[in-house]
């Protein structure tokens, strides 16, 4: 696949990639953009090469996930090395606020996002890949780099935990949470 | 994947989230162009030097480990002591009982556990050195000459210090006899 062809494909998946990057970066928009840039640079430099072993989307998501983890570690080290000045903190605050523009209109969504933050990373990833990105459990397992059985567990536990957290925050968006579960859904 | 009940509710929440994210997503062209403008990552020389130093340390550690493992666990300490050849002239009388002086040899390896043996060897070497000093002193004493010995010498020393030989003539012998 040449670079022009790949670019066209990437453009097609760009919105989904940004959503996944947001999820991997704890919904930090600036960091998600940075991660996405790094991923595109990796592709341009040939450091990340698509070999057709999985679907392009799955491969791309795996690269994003790995890059986000690396960036997270790097940022953590940077923060440890030098204390972040209050100036920088003030600069970052509006960036976080930008995310909430039109989206904050919905109180339920705010609570939902907070509930997602309460989930362990693996569970959040599994739920995001299945519900947000419409991936199958197998594809989610490929992205997360774990077995399908493990992904299923994260998915089920994530659902349970999400329900508990939402119940605790008294989220009610018209439909009761204690509905009948379908164990054979996945 | 067929979704039912609770899953549909979660799906609805995620769909709403996705919609909001799509609206807030930066343009692909912008991100792509910024990625292209970013300086390409290169391996800095510092990283190279760090890697080289790490490799050198690793090699040193491995060499040390191999050397330590190749060493004999219980080596017999050799009690041969390296002794330098004595250069001072030694009289035969003085050397009796001291034994042969060995030429200098390479010091054999002594195992880690045999420190006591090494200590004993060192003590023996010191003893030998002391004995060599004694021999040197004895040699110096045997060749000592009094500084006033020249005052006692005379022209007739040859006659006084020599004995007449058996086949010497009577005429010569007479010279030893007191004159009558």
Feature tags:
A: 186 residues, Rna Polymerase Sigma Factor, Chain: A, B: mainly alpha, 54% helix
Can you put this structure into words, describing what you see?
The two termini of chain A are 33 Å apart. Chain A is mainly α. Chain A folds into two domains: 1-99, Orthogonal Bundle (Rna Polymerase Sigma Factor, Chain: A); 105-174, Winged helix-like DNA-binding domain superfamily/Winged helix DNA-binding domain (Arc Repressor Mutant, subunit A). Chain A has eight helices and no strands. Chain B starts with 5 loop residues before the first helix and ends in a 6-residue tail after the last helix. Chain B has helices spanning 6-24, 28-37, 45-70, 92-95, 115-142, 157-161, 170-174. Among the domains of chain B are: 1-34; 92-142. Chain B is mainly alpha-helical and 180 residues long.
Distance between the termini of chain B: 158 Å
Biggest sheet statistics of chain B = none
What order do the SSEs of chain B take from the amino end to the carboxyl end, as H and E?
Answer: HHHHHHH
Secondary structural class of chain B = mainly alpha
CATH architecture of the largest domain in chain A: Orthogonal Bundle
Strand residue percentage of chain B: under 5%
What average pLDDT do the residues of chain B reach? 75
Structure described in brief:
The complex is a heterodimer of chains A (186) and B (180). Chain A has 186 residues and is mostly helical. Chain A contains eight helices and no strands.
Chart the SSEs and their pairings.
The complex is a heterodimer of chains A (186) and B (180).
Chain A: H1 3-24, H2 29-45, H3 56-81, H4 86-99, H5 107-117, H6 121-132, H7 137-144, H8 148-168
Helix pairs in contact in A: 1-2, 1-3, 1-6, 2-3, 3-7, 6-7, 6-8, 7-8
Chain B: H1 6-24, H2 28-37, H3 45-70, H4 92-95, H5 115-142, H6 157-161, H7 170-174
